[in-house]
Prior knowledge:
Elements: E1 7-12, E2 18-23, E3 29-36, H1 44-47, H2 54-61, H3 71-80, E4 84-89, E5 94-101, H4 105-117, H5 126-141, H6 144-156, H7 169-174, H8 177-187, E6 194-199, H9 203-214, E7 234-238, E8 244-251, H10 260-271, H11 277-285, E9 292-298, E10 303-311, H12 316-333, H13 337-355, H14 358-372, H15 378-386, H16 390-402, E11 407-412, H17 426-430
Parallel strand pairs: 2-6, 7-11
Antiparallel strand pairs: 1-2, 3-5, 3-6, 4-5, 8-10, 8-11, 9-10
Helix pairs in contact: 2-5, 2-8, 4-9, 10-16, 11-12, 12-16, 13-15
Amino acid sequence: MPPTKSMIEHHTYPNGLVLLAETMPSVRSAAFTLLLPAGAAYERPLISTGFGGAATMTAEWISRGAGERDSRALLTALDNLGANHAESAQTLHTSLAVATLGRNLIPALEIFADMILRPHLDDEEVEPIRALCLQSLHSLEDDPGSKVIYELRRRHFPDPWGRSSAGTPEGVTALEPDHLRAFQAETYRPNGAILGVAGAIDWPALRDAVGRLFDAWAPRSAPAIAERPAGPRRDHIPRETQQTQIALAYPSSTVASPDYYDARAVAAILGGYSSARLFTEVREKRGLCYSVYAAYEGQLDRAAMFCHAGSTPERAQETLDVMLGEIARLGEQGVEPDELDMMRAGLKSSLIMAQESSMSRSASLASDWYHLGRVRGLDEISRAFDALSVDAVSAHAARLGRELEPTILTLGPAPLAQPPEREPSALETRN
């Protein structure tokens, strides 16, 4: 008899692979997200010789032929299953994701097991992949708003945690097939991998199928990470653009921190929706820019709140000053009850709508396990938002102006006057 309510199951295989699954009785689809500990942060053996971009190129390479299928046959097989799929690398992980009908879930997993365990990795596929990666890097140069955030992360987080998976043109050009094979062999490992599955699933059949498909995947030692300081905390990238891009990063609380939800609330109240403080003061009242926002990003041991705006060179200084002033004002005066209510309603609504998708839910399962070693239910998250208080969120906001030193990066024709640096706090040192 099919389940009538959502259930979350967990199993860890002898090789270290973690399987998480949630039945969603109201849907006919099923999705999985496999997080591999194979992001750009683990490119150290290649970076030391001046390379970068290996994680992204490898994620594309494994889809170009695996098992008994060549590149065309593999993609055709996924299309025949009606599978929407994506393979991508980020700073910490390579993510393999699929959404399909529930009855096609295990056949899709079989194809991806081939991609992980039996990829062809043919040399002739590397040049087309390199061309795609270089095209993506060149397009980034034409998108200064994205470019400044990429560069801000690199200056704010210690290396390699702020490294972009896109790499650099020089690194992508220099990578050879053997470099990519070495990266794949070292980082594509089951111990540290997390497979989240959600939707119309049969748990016993899924658990047995994953065990059968990945039983031969041998564990390996985690690659060594050598952390290096970030910086500079104040910087400008000269560029003859029509707008000056302004980007700020403040240290924040990790997903596992007791004040995580306070951190999310502060970011949302500052710039998470169309009536947030930065949007109202910078765009609506003064017309300094078209778009301004604040967003939260969490890693395992560090997190940040990022703020961004793009303004004309003539008004960029005022834009930066108003942004810093609003962040300071929130810290000094605290949040208002109606702001907290609006933030709470918005975040809960977006969360619930996202979790109605089997793909979003599979990603959440894997992400929660990585950050917390457990999975949060929607009820738990909803209760946490309901429990937020004006005093607690205001106290968290007060640290932005009093304790936490921002990383500030601008990109445009001329540098802006930026506040001087001071000695970092303990939280800033960790971030």
